[in-house]
Design brief:
- The structure is a homodimer of 188-residue chains.
- Chain A is mainly alpha-helical and 188 residues long.
- The first copy, chain A, is elongated and about 60 Å long.
- In chain A, 76% of the residues lie in helices and 0% in strands.
- Chain A has 2 domains: 44 residues, Homeodomain-like (Arc Repressor Mutant, subunit A, Orthogonal Bundle); 137 residues, Tetracycline Repressor, domain 2 (Orthogonal Bundle).
- In chain A, helix 1 crosses helix 2, helix 1 packs across helix 4 and helix 5 packs across helix 7.
- Chain A binds a DNA duplex (30 and 30 nucleotides) through helix 3.
DNA sequence: TTAAATTTATACAATTCAGTATAGAAAATA
DNA sequence: TATTTTCTATACTGAATTGTATAAATTTAA
């Protein structure tokens, strides 16, 4: 609950996105956060620990934000999955969007044994599982399959938008998602 | 045409993929390549120049490989675009696949003004343009739109496969691609 | 006010980084 | 064989890297 600890987490999140994780030194982080290395290492055992916490918090915040918006938008499962891409679009096209954290982290830590890579893969899986639960509640037979397809469109759009702002990728992803959702076989 | 120059390019390509670009030092590259820094800096002005050449060569090799395979598979445009995902699958599921270079490079160089990021974005655009030409020749009305959707599925699959080998993402991407291609409006 | 906890300031170690200087060895060419 | 080009070996610079040690200053709590 320390204010300094949260400030460090926030600044690190920002710098990791704008400059890359491996290109951001702890000296830069503490300088921008207005503190010192001694304080950073009091709250985080190592830079890797800081990276892992940044990823974890970002993932939790994103999932919570998405879940709240979907639950607020509708109570009917069949409608919720239709709204999924709308909220993704809202996020991706917002001015402060700078890419999906677990995609970028896995690129910077390609070794599958790396804790950062492992956590990234875990978050990607949880995201798919979440979409699959939406699809299942909406009565889709192969909910895992549709969820995987939608996640490809969504993560592809995030990647495209991160590479070039205003790519418009999400617009076409929405059209493709609608076709896939509408043509997906239902349970009964 | 120097053998050493090509060896350096090959080793750098390999290390960039397996350890990441920013995590790979020129000392490591020359050690693995069995040469010295003096030789590396004779052929490449800087590490950034080496990165750019690695990206460029990888992009050209990939495009040439894909184009040759598609031309060999069929002479009918309508069939070629159907085969696109098959060859992507072949590459993505091959044991030495380690991710799409321009996706990973753009993550490590997030600054849009960075030459590495710019070249990555250029390659992504050229890839989409190539798919669009296939779609156009196949008689698709909105060839750019379908190409964008297919590229999202393809790049999403590459990302998924890079994160976790044997993800099976490409299988579902193929199913989604087939639906999108089959339902896409034709010119006449 | 006194005591305890937090934070800062600084200096440091040990390593790694990109890139260069110099000189000699090896290889190709004439 | 003589000459030129290529490559190696090695040492170096100067900056940046993560992480720690030590002591002083500041803030919080009693």
């Amino acid at each position: 609950m320390s204010a300094l600890r949260e400030k460090i987490l926030h600044v690190a999140t920002d710098l990791f996105h704008s400059r890359g994780i491996n290109s951001t030194g702890v000296d830069t982080i503490v300088a921008v956060a207005g503190t010192t290395k001694m304080t950073l290492y009091k709250y985080f055992r190592s830079k890797e620990d800081l990276i892992l916490e940044v990823l974890q918090k970002g993932h939790e915040d994103f999932q919570a934000w998405l879940n709240e918006n979907l639950n607020r938008s509708s109570k009917h499962p069949a409608e919720k999955i239709q709204k999924l891409l709308d909220f993704i679009e809202e996020w991706v096209t917002s001015p402060d969007f700078r890419g999906m954290a677990f995609i970028k982290a896995s690129a910077e830590f390609p070794n599958e044994e790396s804790p950062v890579h492992k956590l990234s893969a875990e978050h990607a899986k949880e995201f798919r599982t979440y979409i699959a639960s939406l699809a299942s509640e909406a009565g889709i037979s192969d909910s895992d399959g549709l969820a995987l397809q939608l996640s490809l469109l969504i993560e592809g759009s995030m990647q495209a938008e991160q590479m070039k702002r205003g790519s418009g990728a999400i617009k076409y992803a929405k059209k493709a998602a609608k076709i896939l959702i509408d043509t997906a076989p239902r349970k009964h």
